[in-house]
Amino acid sequence: MKMIIAILNADDAPTxxxxxxxxxxxxxxxxxxxxxxxxxxVTILIGVEDxxxxxxxxxxxxNSHSRKQMIAPTAEPGLSFxxxxxxxxxxxxxxxxxxxxxxxxxx
Length: 107
Fold this sequence. Notes:
This protein is of the alpha+beta class. The protein has a single domain, classed as 2-Layer Sandwich (Alpha-Beta Plaits). It is 20% helix and 39% strand. The strands form 2 sheets. It has a 4-stranded antiparallel sheet with strand order 2-3-1-6, with helices on one face. Strand 2 (28-33) and strand 3 form a beta hairpin. The chain starts with a strand and ends in a 7-residue tail after the last strand. The mean pLDDT is 84.
């Protein structure tokens, strides 16, 4: 058994969650915040049998997309740099972690 932890852009999350559930996967959804842009993310937890890991990853890949976004200059405390002009960054997509599960029990 594996635990897939997927960190998704908030814009992609509804489609990813919908398609995973439509395919019969149970998920746990957590609202999270990214560090660099401090924007909303969604982290989903999916417990699956080893043989289904690639299918889950494909569903996530098909429904989460990277895109370019401009961020304005800021002097917000806590950021380690202060751009003087807007800069373009890549956002979206997904960050996935696949972990071994030693024990699973539903009570």
